[in-house]
Each structure stands twice: as C-alpha cells, then as structure tokens.
Please model this.
Amino acid sequence: MKKITILVFVLFSMVSYAQIDLESILEGGVADAQTFLKGYIEPAPTGFGYGVNGGWYTTAKTHKLFGFDIAVIANLSMVPSSSETFTFDNADYQNIQLDDNSISSAELPTLFGSQKLADRPLLEFSDDDGNTISSSTLPGSGLEQAIGFNAVPSAMVQLGIGLWKNTDLKVRFVPKQSAPEYEFSTFGVGIQHDLKQWIPFVRRLPFDVSALVAWNDVKSKAFLDVKNEPTQALEFNTKTFLFQILASKKLSILTLYGGIGSSSFDSDVNVIGTYITSQDSEFIDPISLNYTGSSFRANAGFSIKVIGINLSADYTVQEFNTLSVTAGFSIR
Amino acid sequence: MKNFKLVKTVILLFAVLAFSNCEENGAIQFVVKDSFPTPIAVLGLKGQSFYSKEGTADISGLLDNRTAFVEANIESVLLKLENYDGTSIIGSIKLTANEIVLLDEDVILTSLDSDPIAIPENLGGILDAINSGTLTISLEGSTEQPIEDDDFIIVITPMVTGTVE
Model:
C-alpha cells in the first residue's frame, strides 16, 4: 500500500523539481505570493481533479447480485499548451513587478512550462523598506522535456460490487498512510445503475446502457523539509464529482465502451508551517489556494480479458484530456 | 500476489517517468539582479582637485540560497553625493572593481543618483570575486573646481547581475 502512495506524490515531486523557493516568493508578501502561486500551480490541481474522475467504469453492464471487480487505475491528464503559461499583470501585485519597466504584463511559465532562462522574465521583489531584488521567475518542472508531454498522473484502487436492481456500488478507499515525508488517504463512492431495464424499446437493443454518479475525496500532505523544517508541508486535498451516461458492447473477450457527462473538482492547496524570509519576516501557514473546475466530458475505450485479468484503456475528452488504464479482475 | 506485482510495476513505471531527468539541459538556472549601495567617505580634501579612495561592497546578499554562479557581471553603476556642501562635483572619475577598470570618464556628481552608467560586458565580469561575498571598489577622481567640503560621501551603487544554478 505504501507503494501506491508514491504515485500520488509524483505531483509533489514535480513541485520539488521546479525548485520553488517559497521564502523568495514570500519576500513580496502573502497576498502577492498567493496570487502568483495560484497561477503558477493551477494546471496541477486541475489536471489531478480531472484525472481522479477517470477509470470509474470499463463497461456499462452492471454486475449480477454480489458480483464484484477490483481494479487498479492509473490516469494521465494531459496539460494543454495553453496551461504552460499564465499571465502576470503588474496591476495584480503590490510588491512583485516585472523588472522590465517597458511592459505591464507578461506570460510566465506555470509548473508545466519552460525551464529556459529566455522564457522566464525577471521579477522585481520589493519589501516595505523599498529594498528590491530581481530574480528569474520560477521554472517549469521540465516534465515535457523528460517524457515528451506534459501530464498530471493520478492513481486509484477501486472495488465494485453488484447490488439489487442491476446497481453497482463502487468504492475507492485507501486508509491514511503515513510516512516521514507524506500522508495520504482517499475515499470515494460511485453508483452505477442499469438504465436499459426501465426503457421498453431500449431494453431490446444489443448493447448496455447505464448511468453513473461518483464522488471522490483525496487528502494528501507532503512534508517539504523533514529534517530541518518539520512543520513545513504542502497539503493537497481534492474532491471530485462525476456524472456519466454510459454505453458498452461486449464482443467475445473485447468490450467497447464510452460515455458522455460532466466532471468537476474542488481542490485546496495549502502551504503550512513557519517560513522566514531573508528579511527576517515570519509567515505561518502562508498560502491557501482553492481551485474549482467543471467540464463536459466524453470518452471511449475498450477492455479486454486476458488470462483472467481485465485490462482496459480509455481516452476522455474534457478540459484536460485524460488517458486512463486499468488492470484488475472481476466475477460478474 | 500476481496482481500486487502488476500494481507495483505500474507504479514504478509512473514514478520513473516522473522522476527521471526532469531538467532540460543540466541544472536549472536563475538570473538574479541586485544593487549594492557602497558609501565611500571622502575626508580632508577640501580645496583639492584630486581624490583617491577605496571601499568594499557587500554583495553577500546575492549569495543567499545559491549554490553556484555561472556568470556574474556588474551591469551598470549609479553615482551620487551625500552630505556635500556644494551642489555638484564635475570632473573625471576612474572606477575599479577588484582591479578591473570599469569606468574612466567625465561625470557630474550630485545629490541625486546619476543615470545608470552601463559597464561594457567584457569589463564587468566578477565571477572570480563573487564567491567571496565582497567587491573591492577603488575610486580616483579629478575635479574641474576644487572640492568644497572636508567630509562627504560618494555613494557608488553597482548593479550586479548573476546567473546561478
């Protein structure tokens, strides 16, 4: 189980690779740091929120009573190129300004943006005494250069069980996992219900139709400097909601499936702990960011049963398109 | 057990993808730019038309949290007078930082910061000195009119730009 949590903390490692120097950002004060980080981090919680909503189903056919399935789900939410930068506008900040006086706004890299110096304008940080220092804005994670594309990963373990009236209960549950560097837990439930049984002419069609509603809550915390600053941590909590109408057709060992619906998330990113800047200003629990989003989603995929193992892959078109793959087994 | 191994494989694949080589071309670089006002006291030279003084700029603030400088340059210099009884000093000035002549030209010193005087890129390199955290600045000047004060300060403000990793 400990290994599973590693995947979730890929996000945090990306933050770490981006070498966020939080104390430097705080030189400009909490309000400016909040505004800056809101834009800089945004693709991560957005991609994670949409990603977690992936993999809830691999067929529209519900289980028989007490039939069940267990699956491991991995999602990759693709970060669109438009999310590789965010707009920095001098007017939105008090103590952070573009070093170049001839411009009032600029596109800066997000966590998924460029690492090149040429793409990272200088920002001038001022304190209340008028002291200033200019530094290149934060770089992206470099993930695209490393693996060829920008994506936010997420993973889940899911149990589905057949109940009455062709209804499946789906549960995602990982109890709180604690290690010196992180904490993680998740809980989610979904209900998938067969619709065909209620619609007279649809009942005779040679494919399955069902509806799914699902909710998921992911709580995580990464400690930033366990040895030297044990209070410093990054909290990342996400709630997601999914509604989907599904259809699937089984062809021997192959099942084709797809659906349309909506996906939404509500994420909190909090930087907690005590931070002291080079100007000796102290900040406690300085950053608290909230991200919400919702999107129409449509997906299509296939699953195949090989030696008792169900393997599936689907692609979802939404604000952050998502590739989901699952592996598991089922007794229908 | 078979399923667990599969989980482990998927996780490792993801982890390797995410953790591997997440920097484009070696270490990530930052440009840092800061100014270091350095007051140099000029004492006992009233009536003279030549002065030669030395001071030390504390540039250690530039070193905060930085591991290595790839490049460091004095980009420009500001000059001004403080506590001077007259209105200005007109004359030539020769400015040396760590034995490199940065500037040797006619200037007008007043109580206001001068316009930034650009230092040619080939002259402003201070990479060798930067890790010491200090910059030795020498000032030699000759004036058109005799100096009108026995105790004043010339503030030299080098604007240092460094590329760090």
User: Anything to note?
Assistant: Chain A is about 15% helix and 55% strand. The longest strand of chain A covers residues 229-251. The domain at 2-331 of chain A is CATH 2.40.128 (Lipocalin).
